[in-house]
Write a structure and sequence with these properties.
- This protein has twelve helices and no strands.
- α2 (about 30-35) crosses α3 (about 40-45).
- It is mainly α.
Length: about 210
């Protein structure tokens, strides 16, 4: 029996979940109606056709990234928090972010995070070129790191794997004998979230440091 009560937000929530899990190709009006337990005509009434539905998902994704709020006691902490939140948001929505990019709205999507970074850069005393440099460097760090993570996840299995190469590195360069802790660390699985935190904190500390010379 078809449902009688259905809201636009419920349609968008279910559609976004399908795209997140399976990609845009999995989002058909028939499948969405089945997930919602309703008729296809009801979906059309709430969101229009499939292209209109995708446009609505794009707008919602852009709006979601506008809700990121800095956290922390000082500008450095808050800048790092923006980077961490932005990375997590991009990681959680790869297919939706790709839809935003395809529709030419990438810069609009990043604007709220940029504004937050500008505010914190000013709070830290940066102006002009130095403030712009911080905003762009942090944004590129986030996007670059997410792309590398995604590429590593989608790459074919390596043989030998990175961990195997470093575990037996004594036969290659003698690293295991010269620096066994380094060899063990490089042979361990990568904690990409911790690595990102380390990298972005070092980046922000360097950008906020007083200029030399």
């Amino acid at each position: 029996m078809a449902r009688t009560a259905l809201t636009r937000d419920e349609v968008l929530d279910t559609a976004a979940a399908l795209v997140r899990e399976h990609g845009p190709a999995a989002l058909t009006m028939r499948r969405l109606a089945a997930e919602l337990g309703t008729a296809v005509t009801s979906i059309y009434w709430h969101v229009g056709n499939r292209e209109s539905l995708l446009d609505a998902l794009v707008e919602r994704t852009v709006a979601d990234l506008g809700t990121l709020r800095p956290r922390g006691a000082g500008p450095a902490e808050r800048i790092v928090s923006v980077a961490l939140l932005l990375r997590r948001a991009l990681r959680e929505r790869p297919h939706l972010v790709a839809l935003v990019h395809e529709r030419g709205l990438t810069e609009r999507m990043f604007l709220p995070a940029q504004r937050a970074l500008v505010h914190e850069a000013h709070a830290a005393g940066l102006r002009g070129h130095r403030a712009a440099e911080l905003v762009r460097a942090v944004q590129f760090q986030v996007v670059g790191h997410v792309l590398v993570e995604r590429n590593r996840e989608r790459s074919p299995a390596q043989s030998p794997a990175e961990t195997e190469l470093w575990a037996d590195d004594a036969a290659v360069t003698g690293t295991a004998e010269a620096d066994p802790d380094l060899a063990r660390a490089l042979a361990a699985p990568i904690d990409t979230e911790a690595l990102f935190g380390t990298a972005v904190r070092a980046l922000v500390a360097g950008l906020l440091a007083p200029p030399t010379g």
